[in-house]
Write a structure and sequence with these properties.
The protein is α/β, with parallel strands linked by helices and 636 residues long. 42% of the residues lie in helices and 14% in strands. The strands form five sheets. Strands 5-8-4-9-10-3-11-14-15 form a nine-stranded mixed beta sheet, sandwiched between helices. α8 packs across α9 and α9 runs antiparallel to α12. The longest helix has 24 residues. 33% of the residues are buried.
C-alpha cells in the first residue's frame, strides 16, 4: 500500500492530468448520450453553450459513459507511455561535453570574504577562497583548504603562491623553505606586522637553527614506533622492500629509544645517546653467551621490570644469531651515520621547537601574564615554523620527516584533547618542494582528517610523478583530498594529461567543405558537433607563463593571471637581498631578516623567562583555569 502511495506522490502531475481527462471524457460522453439531434447540431450547440458539458458534474454514472471515458483515457495513457519510452534525450549545445572556463565573480560568489581580503587564501590574481568557514554562510560554498600546487622549475611556485599567502598573516604557518630565502624575505614582515613567534629548523646551516629533539615528543610506545618507521622509510633506498634485516633493525631501535626515555637522565634523552649505545654493542659470533655492556643494561631493567616494552623488543632482537646480529648492527651504524656529526648531534640534543604551541600559543606579556581581548577571551600569538632544507641533497631530510610526523601527531592530539577537536588558530602547512622533504608516514590519512582540526596542508610539487614516486598508490588519495589544484606551468607528460583530463571536454561546432573534381564539379558543406578537450596537453604545455589554471571542486576551471606579489598590501615589508662581493656584504638589504640576531635574542628571552619562580607559574596556571576551565597547561 505504501508503495502505491509513493508512486502516486512521485507521478502526481500525471495522475491529476489523466484524472481530469477521464472526467472530461465522461462529461462529453454523457452530453452526446443525453441530447438528441445530429452530431453537427450537437457540436454547434456545445460550441455556443460550453457549460452543458458539465451538466453531469461531478460524474456520469451510466455504464456506457464510464466505460467510454475509461477506454479513451487508457488509450491516451498508452500513447503517452510509448512516447516517453521512445523519447530521445537531447542536451543541445553540450552533446559531447559541457566544460567551459569559469567566471570568478559569478562562480566564486559566497566563497570569498569580500569585506576583509586578508582572511582569504590567494590562488591567483582573481581566484580566492575564505580561509575560515565561518566567513562562508552557505554550506555548498564551503571547501576544505587543502590545495595541490604543481609547477615546473621556474614557474613561480614560491613567488606567486607561497609568499603572497604568508603575507596574508591570517594563520599559523609551517613552511618548507628550500635554501632559507622565504624566512629572510618575510621574517621582518611576520615580526613587525603580525607579531609572529618564529621558529626555524635549518638543515643546511645547523648553526642558524633552533634545536629539535624528536624524543621530547614521544609520550607513549606508539610514538616510538612512528619515529622508527619514519627513520627507516627516509633512510632506505627508493622502492626498497622491507626484509628480515630491516624488521630486526626496527626492534633494536625501539628497544634502545624506550630504554633511553625511561631509564636515562633528562639531558641524555636524545638520538645521540642512541648512537652511543649502538657503539657499545659487542657481539661474538662464537660465543652466544657473551654479555656486553648493553646486554647487561637490559638484564638489569628486566630484573626490575620484566614487562617493560624495551625489554620485550630487545629480547626479540636477541633471537638473531651472533653473526646475523653483527650484520644488523653494522646496518644500524650505517643508517644512523649522520647522527655522529657533532653539529647534528647538538641540533638534536635539546628542543626549542615547542610543536605543541602551533595553532594555540597563548599570548603573554613580559611578566608572563596572559593577555585577553576586549571580550575577555584569551589572545593567541601567531607562530611560524620554517623548515629550511637543501634542494639538492636529501642526507638530512629524514630529520624534517620526523618533525612533520610529530608535528601532525602533536597538534591533532592537542586539538582533540584541549579544544574539542579544532585549534583556536588555523594552521597552514605550506610544503614547498614537497618531494624533497622525505616521506611522511600515513600522509594520505592525515590530509583526509586534519580539516576538522582547523589544519590544512598544501603539497607543492614540480610534477605529479614526484608524488607518485614517493607515495605510490596513495598519491591519488592525496590529490583527491585537495579541493583545489593550481597548475602554474610545466611540461611533464603525466601531469599535462591529468590536467587536460580534469579540465574536461566541451562541445564545438564543426564545419567541413568538400569538392569533387570530375566532368561536373560538385561542392558540399557539412555542419556537425564535436567533443574537444578544453585544453589539450600540448596546449597546456604552451600556456602563457603569466597564466595559471585553478580547479576547485564542483566549480568550472579558471584560467587567470598569476598573483602579482608587488601589488600585495604588505609588499613594502618584503626583504631585499644584501649585495655581497667576495664574501663580504657591501650593501645591506632592506627588511632582510637576520636569523643569527633573532636566535640570539630569542634564547636570551627564554633564559630570562626560565628564571621565573615556581609560584609565578602556578599563579599563571590558576589565572588561565579561572578564565577557561577547559584550558589545559603542562606544568612539567
Amino acid at each position: 500500500m505504501n508503495t502505491f502511495w509513493n508512486w502516486i506522490k512521485e507521478h502526481k502531475i500525471k495522475v491529476i492530468f489523466f484524472l481530469l481527462f477521464f472526467l472530461l471524457s465522461n462529461y462529453v460522453s454523457s452530453f452526446f448520450s443525453t441530447y438528441t439531434g445530429t452530431i453537427f447540431n450537437k457540436l454547434s450547440y456545445v460550441t455556443s453553450h460550453p457549460a452543458v458539458i458539465f451538466e453531469a458534474f461531478p460524474i456520469a454514472l451510466t455504464i456506457k459513459d464510464l466505460v467510454l471515458a475509461l477506454g479513451v483515457t487508457s488509450i491516451l495513457t498508452l500513447l503517452v507511455s510509448q512516447k516517453e519510452e521512445n523519447n530521445k534525450k537531447y542536451r543541445k549545445g553540450v552533446e559531447h561535453g559541457s566544460a567551459t572556463w569559469g567566471k570568478p565573480q559569478k562562480d566564486l560568489q559566497g566563497m570569498v570574504n569580500q569585506k576583509d581580503d586578508s582572511r582569504n587564501i590567494l590562488f591567483s590574481e582573481n581566484i580566492k577562497m575564505a580561509l575560515r568557514n565561518e566567513d562562508v554562510r552557505d554550506f555548498k560554498a564551503q571547501r576544505n583548504k587543502n590545495a595541490l600546487i604543481i609547477g615546473g622549475s621556474g614557474s613561480g611556485k614560491t613567488r606567486f603562491f607561497v609568499k603572497p599567502n604568508i603575507m596574508q598573516l591570517n594563520a599559523d604557518f609551517v613552511v618548507t623553505d628550500p635554501k632559507g630565502s622565504i624566512l629572510n624575505e618575510l621574517g621582518v614582515l611576520l615580526r613587525a606586522k603580525g607579531n609572529y613567534d618564529i621558529r626555524v629548523l635549518n638543515l643546511i646551516d645547523f648553526s642558524k637553527s633552533m634545536h629539535y629533539n624528536p624524543l621530547a615528543y614521544i609520550k607513549k610506545e606508539e610514538d616510538i614506533l612512528k619515529v622508527v618507521e619514519t627513520i627507516i622509510k627516509n633512510t632506505s633506498a627508493k622502492d626498497a622492500k622491507e626484509d628480515f634485516w630491516v624488521t630486526t633493525e626496527k626492534l633494536i631501535y625501539q628497544a634502545l629509544i624506550a630504554a633511553i626515555l625511561n631509564y636515562f637522565e633528562p639531558e641524555e634523552r636524545h638520538l645521540g645517546t642512541l648512537v652511543d649505545l649502538l657503539a657499545l654493542f659487542e657481539v661474538k659470533e662464537n660465543d652466544e653467551a657473551y654479555i656486553s655492556t648493553v646486554d647487561q643494561m637490559f638484564l638489569d631493567i628486566e630484573a626490575s621490570d620484566p614487562d617493560a616494552f624495551c625489554v620485550k623488543q630487545y629480547n626479540a632482537f636477541k633471537l638473531a644469531a651472533g653473526e646475523t646480529a653483527k650484520s644488523i648492527l653494522i646496518s644500524c651504524a650505517t643508517r644512523l651515520a649522520p647522527l655522529n656529526i657533532p653539529a647534528v648531534r647538538d641540533l638534536l640534543s635539546t628542543d626549542e621547537m615547542k610543536l605543541e604551541e602551533l595553532g594555540n600559543k597563548v599570548l603573554c606579556d613580559e611578566k608572563g601574564k596572559v593577555q585577553y581581548d576586549k571580550n575577555g577571551k584569551i589572545i593567541y600569538q601567531p607562530v611560524a615554523l620554517f623548515v629550511i632544507i637543501p634542494d639538492s641533497d636529501t642526507t638530512f631530510n629524514f630529520i624534517s620527516s620526523i618533525m612533520y610526523t610529530q608535528m601532525f601527531n602533536t597538534v591533532i592530539t592537542i586539538a582533540d584533547t584541549k579544544y574539542n577537536g579544532s585549534l583556536p588558530r588555523h594552521l597552514r602547512c605550506l610544503f614547498d618542494e614537497f618531494a624533497n622533504t622525505g616521506e611522511i608516514p600515513n600522509f594520505e590519512i592525515l590530509i583526509a582528517t586534519i580539516r576538522s582540526r582547523n589544519i590544512s596542508a598544501t603539497p607543492i610539487l614540480q610534477t605529479l610523478s614526484q608524488l607518485k614516486k614517493i607515495y605510490k598508490d596513495s598519491a591519488d588519495t592525496i590529490v583527491g583530498n585537495c579541493d583545489t589544484l593550481v597548475f602554474l606551468g610545466g611540461k611533464e607528460e603525466s601531469t599535462l594529461k591529468m590536467i587536460s583530463g580534469q579540465l574536461g571536454k566541451g562541445t564545438i561546432d564543426d564545419f567541413n567543405t568538400s569538392r569533387t573534381r570530375s566532368q561536373n564539379d560538385s561542392f558540399g558543406q557539412n555542419y556537425s558537433k564535436l567533443g574537444r578537450e578544453l585544453m589539450t596537453p600540448d596546449e597546456i604545455q604552451k600556456m602563457d607563463r603569466r597564466k595559471a589554471i585553478v580547479m576547485i571542486t564542483s566549480l568550472p576551471p579558471f584560467m587567470d593571471n598569476k598573483y602579482d606579489i608587488t601589488k600585495h598590501p604588505h609588499y613594502q615589508y618584503h626583504g631585499q637581498a644584501p649585495v655581497i662581493d667576495n664574501g663580504k656584504i657591501v650593501k645591506k638589504g632592506g627588511n632582510w631578516f637576520d636569523t643569527d640576531r633573532y636566535l640570539t635574542g630569542y634564547r636570551n628571552k627564554i633564559t630570562k623567562t626560565s628564571k621565573r619562580r615556581k609560584n609565578d607559574q602556578e599563579s599563571l596556571l590558576n589565572e588561565i583555569l579561572h578564565e577557561d576551565p577547559n584550558f589545559k597547561v603542562s606544568m612539567k
